[in-house]
Amino acid sequence: MPIEETLVLVKPDGVARGLTGAILARIEAKGYALVDIRLVEPDRETLERHYAEHEGKPFYEPLLEFMMSGPSVAIRLAGNRVIEGFRSLAGTTDPTTAAPGTVRGDFGRDWGLKVQQNLVHGSDSPESAARELGIWFG
Ligand code: DAT
Ligand code: MG
C-alpha cells in the first residue's frame, strides 16, 4: 500500500472563517493520519519558496499578500495515496466552480473573484510534497 505524506495548509480564509475544525473533520473522516499540525504565520521568504512555481504570474503578488493576511494551519498528513486523495477532497482550484462535496465546492465562495481565497492547499506530486514538507516542517 503506497503510504504517502503530503502538505496541507488551511489558508488564512479558512482559519479566519472558523472552518479549520470542519476541514479537519473531513480529513479525519477520510481516515488520513495527522502526523504533525501547527499554526503558522509565514514570512514572505517562506511563501516565495512555497509558491516558487508561480513567480511572475499575475496572481503571484496578491497570493503572497493574501497568505500573509493572517495565520494558516500547516498539516503533515499521511495516508494511502494521500497526495492525490487530498486534492480530490479539496476540489478544483477555483471555489466558484469546484464540485459539491469538496472543501472548496462546499465552503468556498465568490469573494469578489479572488481565486486565492480557496481555503486549502495540498501538494500536487510526491516531489512537491517532499519539497513543501521541508519548507513548512523542516
Ligand atoms: P492549487 O492550489 O489548486 O494547486 P495552483 O497551484 O495552480 O492551484 O495555484 C496556487 C494558488 O494560486 C491557488 O490555490 C489560488 C491561486 N491561483 C491560482 N490560479 C489563480 C488565478 N487564475 N487567479 C487568482 N489566483 C489564482
Ligand atoms: Mg498548486
What report would you give on this structure?
With 138 residues, the protein is of the alpha+beta class. It has one domain (3-137): Alpha-Beta Plaits (2-Layer Sandwich), CATH 3.30.70.141. Helix content is 41%, strand content 20%. The chain is built from seven helices and four strands, in the order E-H-H-E-H-H-E-H-H-E-H. The chain has a four-stranded antiparallel beta sheet, sandwiched between helices. It starts with a strand and ends with a helix. The model has no long low-confidence stretch (mean pLDDT 95). Bound molecules: 2'-deoxyadenosine-5'-diphosphate and magnesium ion. The site of 2'-deoxyadenosine-5'-diphosphate has 9 residues, from loops. Keywords: ATP-binding, Kinase, Nucleotide metabolism, Nucleotide-binding, Transferase. Its EC number is 2.7.4.6. The active site is at 121 (pros-phosphohistidine intermediate).
